Amino acid sequence: MEELTGEQVAQLHREHVMQPWHKQGGDVTAISKADGIYFWDYAGKRYADMSSLLVCSNLGHELPEIVDAIKAQADRMCFMSPAYATEPKSRLAEKLVEVAGADFYQRVFFTNGGADANENAIKMARMVTGRAKILSCYRSYHGATYAASNASGDWRRFAAETGGSLPGFVHFMNANMYENGYTRGVDDAEVTADYLQRLEEQLQYEGPTSVAAIILESVVGANGVILPPKGYLEGIRALCDKYGILMICDEVMSGFARTGKMFAWQNFDIQPDMFSFAKGVTCGYVPLGGVVVSKAISDYFCDNVLQCGLTYSGHTLACAAGVATMDYYAEHDVCAHVLEMEAILKPYLESMQAKHRCVGEARCIGLFAALTIVKNKETRELMSPYHDAHSVMPTIMGKLMEKGFATFGRESNINICPPLTITEEQLREELPKLDEVLTWVDENLCN
Ligand SMILES: Cc1ncc(COP(=O)(O)O)c(C=O)c1O
Predict the structure, then answer these.
(1) Per the record's keyword annotation, is Methyltransferase included, yes or no (predicted)?
(2) How many CA atoms does the CB half-sphere of 68 hold within 13 Å?
């Protein structure tokens, strides 16, 4: 078959592909290849993948260890039904439980991605507790299937609520210290106490014995890498224990060494009853997700039928990719490397906050970082009001893209989440491009 040109690929896409979260038929860049932290368009322009695509290519592109594992598995057996045990699935489940902590966790339910991982975690919580309500944060995203959409807090849930939201989904406000006018480090205790007190009050009005689970991102990702104030997650855990509510951490974006720990919840003094994962488990080479469950939940389903299932649960090829990915994290001590890179990225972003009028706040944990872009630093007026259709943020992203610095930003945030394999040299080559674009923003978009 004759290869298409880049223009033909883009044209066919514009005509026939439904582009997620966009009006259809708009501009699209056709990508021809990817390698390491880079990908290239058909004109040969190189882009540094400074967001790990959708914060999933944790180990970069075309890593031979993962590619070879997929090829070897494809030659032997691409797929076997979930009814049977396969070596990749058994091995991957064991590795996930081990890394999570085999003293507390027991089993894994595999899914195809992050949304259905959360979907099934919610279903399990309802089965185990016999309760209906699911509490989740407004500043959150849990996926685009129906229950995951309804659990999500940002505007991407609105379409799933057309004609009414699903029964039992209740939202509460989680802190965004910067946007709420607080100073991180100084006001954490006050903010934690305040938000926990409001949540407990809300629980009283919902009736705590009707609440099955509280689901939340250990570190809020797509809504701007929002770090929980100190003590907040521990406080949620305590509230869950007090009222017999299950705690579900969504690790879909924050998991797999992104924060310098294998799972982001491990940065805090908590153990969720279940946590969902996807993205970094295979770095997207083959789609895979799942839920790791505690011994207690696992025991419940030894006596009761697990009413969850997917044709591709524990997909053989995906699990083979997962085993190779997990081995790479361990053998190359990726968490240690992330912390070394954090020691460069974090101070650099803080220096951007000090230097630029448009940078309200820099947040960074591991290689999970975002800048909040403001019109005015004194008033903390955001560059774009929440869910603003006329946002100028795409213009800013476009300027970065022109320089070969590819990332995404939502609302008034620019995400900086490069592959965890990025080297010091590569990081130092890319960051000045961000500095240049921020200077342009200072000069053209600030009050
Ligand atoms: C925290 C979180 N949960 C769930 C999802 C949904 O995952 P998927 O797109 O694989 O369904 C995402 C996707 O970005 C996410 O960031």
Answers:
(1) no
(2) 5
- For residue 143, the CA-to-ligand 1 centroid distance in Å is 5
pLDDT digit string, tens, across residues 373-383? 999 999 999 99
Reported as a pLDDT band with limits 50, 70 and 90, residue 388 is confident
What's the pTM?
Answer: 0.98
CB count within 10 Å of CB 83 equals 7
Q: Is the CB of 113 under 6 A from ligand 1?
A: yes
| Ligand 1 proximity of 221 Cβ (cutoff 6 Å) | yes
CATH topology of domain 66-332: Aspartate Aminotransferase; domain 2 (3.40.640)
**Strands laid side by side in the 38-41 sheet:** 31-35, 38-41, 46-49, 405-406
Q: Domain ranges in the chain?
A: 6-62+333-445, 66-332
Is 54 a pocket residue for ligand 1 (Cβ < 6 Å)?
yes
Residues 344 and 351: beta-carbon distance below 8 Å: no
282 in Cβ contact with 306 (< 8 Å):
no
Token pair, residue 209, equals 């014995």
Domain 6-62+333-445 annotated CATH 3.40.109.10: no
